[in-house]
Amino acid sequence: MPDMTATVESLPILLVPEPILKARSRSVGAADVERVRGLVPRMFATMYRAPGIGLAAPQVGVGLRFAVVDLMPDDKPAPIVLINPEVIARSDEQATREEGCLSLPGQYADVTRPARVTVRYTDAEGARRQIDAEGLLAACIQHEIDHLDGILFVDHLSALKRNMILRRLAKELRQKRAEAM
Ligand code: GNR
Ligand code: NI
Fold first, then answer.
1. Residue 70 in contact with ligand 1 by CB distance below 6 A
2. Is this structure's pTM higher than 0.90?
């Protein structure tokens, strides 16, 4: 008897400087729906295990425009699947908060973005939806949509801060890989 409660396998998370992280992903079309359906549970498993509050398909090597998000309010799962998400309105008001990224492990910086966004997307059931986001959810959704356009949170920083972070990450990964030998 197969174990029906078997844990969904995590996927490897690609790290900077993987080229796919700098590429624009293409829209999910009807022909991609089965592939997306298969990937979504694995992407949630990968995100929860990391742990993170969002994960975009290119971070697991898939060049398609979808992402998963879960802020786990009150420690309870609240999974959101964003397929072909589009920001259709953004506030003039900006907000600054510290961001991190699973593709730049251990690196954090303050990022300024629109405080509120309205996002149109297709959900996991194929229904067209719209969400008004603010606070951390707004930052997270914008961060994930950026990934679909090949943009990383460090691209919102000055060249000086960006290079500082990229050099620090390269050094830390080099050290970690040397230790693992
Ligand atoms: O886990 C994550 N935390 C986070 C914090 C502030 C703004 C955005 C994020 S998303 C990030 C996970 C990730 O890399 N998603 O692409
Ligand atoms: Ni990220």
1. no
2. yes
